[in-house]
Amino acid sequence: MSGGIARITAGILSYNRRDSLRRTLEAVLAIPGLRVLVIDNASTDGTVEMLRREYPSHLYPQLRVLFLEENRGIAARNIFFHEVETDFLLTLDDDSWPRSAEDVDRMREIMIADPRIASVCASCIHPDTGVAETEGIERFASAGDRAHGYDVVNIAAGGSLLRMEAMRQTDGYGAEFFWGREENDLAFQLLQRRWRIGFYPDAVIWHTLSPAGRNVYRRLEYVTRNSIWLLWKYFPLLIAIPIAKLFALRRLLAVIKDIRRLLPVLRGILSGVGGLIPRRREGRRFTLREAWKLRGWIRKLIRE
Predict the structure, then answer these.
(1) How far apart are CA 88 and CA 86, in angstroms?
(2) Which of 39, 129, 224, 267 has most Cβ atoms within 10 angstroms of its Cβ?
């Protein structure tokens, strides 16, 4: 196994979660042969000082840390695509880590078995509550099975193994998204290049979903906006317009349960609609036939 793990770098994006990051580093540094690269997104909570004090390079030669001078959002993950020298990247959050080396190696084996697989997402589960944020993704799969992985449109940044050859063929995570749906943006780029994206539920990544830096209403606004942007960017208007309307309606109906959602949803819808022209200028769109194959993702989008 160690030979396989040596072909993998664990890439951790960190921002203002010092204690969570320490827990994650303890787990990944305990896996023999695994290289680790931390990118700190200009933390201000003492994370930088903790990394320099507790993880010096002479004690942890397998660990490398890059400190950014400004918070670049999710686009900071694109640095991994330039810095990682191994064949695979295990992309993690600062509050997520593999259950075991065997889980990581099994994900790698699935990708080795099919060289057209660009990414394998694991089950991302809270280690204490057992709640899985990835639960039910297979219901929206276009193909596959549990033993070999399902074909999905899901690259969980907190728990996926990526093939670097495939990632370098893309434009990376879109900086304009900043936070939310950027993983779908990357997935669509891969699908357009005829790569497969898998979900392997038997591999587990523990993800505590630390509340630090997670403003639920701000995220709601970003995800609402970015969902509409994805429709403009990748789908024919014949599909994008009615799906955007259904998506917006579903988001507004949810306001009944929590009136505090109203302003973030409205801001997200307005920003999303306002981004129609610039998003239509980007990339190429799926054909109607290709869009039909993505109907599982569309169903999932509307139901969320």
Answers:
(1) 6
(2) 224
